[in-house]
Design goal:
- The longest helix is centred in the last third of the chain and has 15 residues, at 259-273.
- By secondary structure, the chain is an alpha/beta fold.
- It contains 10 helices and 15 strands.
- The protein is elongated.
């Protein structure tokens, strides 16, 4: 079992003072305990879990009502209605770019409306299957200067159930999930691991761990803890510089974790999990894109099971940072490749609707965007 074990940790309020069980965030073991408390047989837990995590992607919002769970006896449905809460995730706006990328603005939370927070998630349609980029927090504490979310401030963590709902809200078959939306996943550690447990459960959506990517700005203690679980997810580290000074100029959180400690943690993670680490590197003109910095990066990553994903920094309308020119990006990549560091330059998609890397935020305002 991954994540918090106490059923009391998975709770919410119904808009008043009544404490409600966040049933969508419960795993099957916890549901069995809950069913026992309700005087129900253990197999009811599987029925509830399957309904929540298999039926949600395929049905309308109307089926979210406990009354619609027609595989359960009426008395159990009544008790679930009284004691449980599925936090609402309402689609406020949907925007589609010409490249097929779809961005969703979602309002999370119940009544009153003033208690709701806004997050964004993104659907990317590929020939090999759909990928959904989800948020793990409303806002973010990390403050990376090239990231729109980092300029929004932090509102609250999302529950595992609210993360699941972002996957289910796209109402399309999903092959891959990337935790790269609003927020720092490892700053919401327990809920993030619980989400992975739920979304990969064979009685639920049944995604493979290998089809999940978790992106972090480099929280060293949490990376070391994550390694102990030996999961088969892809860990992506936002590096963005080959030395402390460069990283700290772009990512204030880097002041808490020296780059040598981060790379040491990455070596331990790769050695423990036998999984290749992806390093995300936002190429920013005149900041971190010189040939000398490419050579320093190659030296830093020497001997580490890894892949470097170069991303020309995206405009967020809040800074004067500019993306590295194409020929300079190619030179940077070639230096890494010559040093036997697997490297690619990511194709930018979704920028037209501010859905590209670093452009998501937690706000219900965007005067430049028009709904489809």
């Amino acid at each position: 079992m991954i994540g918090p074990k106490a059923i009391t940790l998975n709770c919410g309020y119904d808009g008043g003072l009544n404490l409600m069980v966040d049933i969508l965030s419960l795993n099957i073991d916890e549901l069995q305990l809950f069913m026992k408390d309700l005087g129900q047989p253990a197999y009811r837990a599987v029925q509830v879990f399957e309904w929540l995590h298999q039926r949600f992607p395929a049905v309308s919002d109307e089926a979210f009502l406990f009354e619609k769970m027609n595989n359960l006896p009426q008395n159990l449905r009544n008790e679930l209605e009284k004691q449980c809460l599925i936090t609402s995730v309402n689609l406020e706006k949907e925007l589609r770019a010409k490249d097929g990328t779809v961005k969703f603005l979602l309002a999370v939370g119940g009544e009153p409306a003033s208690s709701r927070v806004y997050i964004e998630s993104v659907l990317m349609e590929y020939t090999h299957g759909n990928t959904v980029c989800i948020s793990t927090q409303a806002g973010c504490k990390m403050g990376c200067i090239f990231c729109a979310t980092g300029h929004s401030g932090f509102l609250r963590n999302l529950s595992a159930g609210e993360m699941c709902m972002q996957v289910y809200a796209v109402k399309r078959p999903v092959r891959n999930v990337v935790l790269m939306g609003c927020g720092e996943p490892l700053d919401n550690f327990d809920a993030t691991l619980r989400f992975i447990e739920l979304i990969t459960h064979p009685k639920g959506a049944g995604l493979s761990q290998r089809h999940i990517t978790l992106s972090t700005c480099g929280l060293v203690p949490e990376i070391l803890t994550l390694a102990k679980y030996k999961m088969q997810i892809t860990l992506a580290i936002s590096l963005h510089g080959p030395d402390d000074d460069t990283r700290q100029a772009l990512m204030p959180i880097a002041k808490n974790h020296a780059i040598k400690d981060l790379i040491a943690a990455c070596h331990q993670y790769a050695n423990t999990t036998r999984r290749r680490i992806t390093f995300e590197y936002a190429l920013t003109e005149g900041v971190n894109d010189s040939p000398a910095q490419a050579r320093a990066l190659a030296n830093l990553l020497k001997g580490l099971l890894c892949h470097v994903n170069l991303i020309p920094v995206n405009q967020v309308g809040l800074t004067k940072l500019s993306p590295t020119k194409k020929h300079e990006a190619a030179t940077f990549a070639s230096i890494l490749q010559a040093a036997n560091i697997p490297t690619t330059i990511r194709r930018t998609i979704g920028a037209e609707v501010n859905a590209a890397c670093g452009q998501l935020r937690a706000a219900n305002t965007d005067s430049k965007l028009k709904p489809v």
